[in-house]
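# step 3/5: fold
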Amino acid sequence: MTGMQFTPKGYGGSRRDPDQVKRDGWQEHRMLAVSIDDHRLTWPERELVRQLGERLYGKRREDRRHG
């Protein structure tokens, strides 16, 4: 008899890159993960992301210190 012959999901194998995880989250679960510093966004889009984040989760710690 030998030890375990399978690898539980999430252990071993290759890792998905962060953008693939975000893409899968959006397509499969309707969840959106967006960095406020994403270079693909225009200034108005980044501002919208910031405002949504503050509305849902409050101001970021570093923003509270400066005003």
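# step 4/5: annotate
The chain has three helices and no strands.
# step 5/5: archive (pending)
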